[in-house]
Specification:
2 helices, alpha+beta, 22% strand, 7 strands, single chain, 118 residues, 2 domains, elongated
């Protein structure tokens, strides 16, 4: 379903050759001396606009936002079924995990997009 595993975070905003880029955390890479930062994206914006930095910050926050959504995805209200077994719900759409997210659920839609499921 998914489109593969994303580059590990954290990501940050930097300048590279005069461009605004989103970079991965520096890592040791085979064949390179020391730690290397990989560019995730070169960020574009409207001519003369200030949106380039805002776009870059949103992209750099993506790994942290994904981790936060995954941490709360099924941490809504705690209920017990007819047999007394506990289950939790999504805090956004209030549906049980066994039911899956409701259409239009903010958390479900964002996670599906991040996982390449839509």
């Amino acid at each position: 379903m998914g489109c593969g595993k994303a580059t590990k975070g954290p990501w940050s905003v930097a300048k590279f050759d005069g461009n605004t880029v989103v970079q991965a955390e520096p890592v040791l890479a085979h064949g390179f001396p020391g730690k290397v930062s990989w560019n995730i994206a070169i960020v574009m914006g409207t001519p003369g606009g200030r949106d380039k930095q805002a776009n870059a910050r949103m992209m750099a926050a993506a790994p942290d936002l994904l981790a936060a959504l995954e941490a709360v995805e099924w941490q809504g209200s705690m209920f017990k079924d007819l047999e007394g077994k506990p289950y939790t719900t999504c805090p956004a759409c209030r549906r049980a995990k066994v039911e899956g997210h409701a259409p239009g659920c903010l958390i479900g839609n964002a996670l599906a997009k991040a996982r390449g499921e839509v």
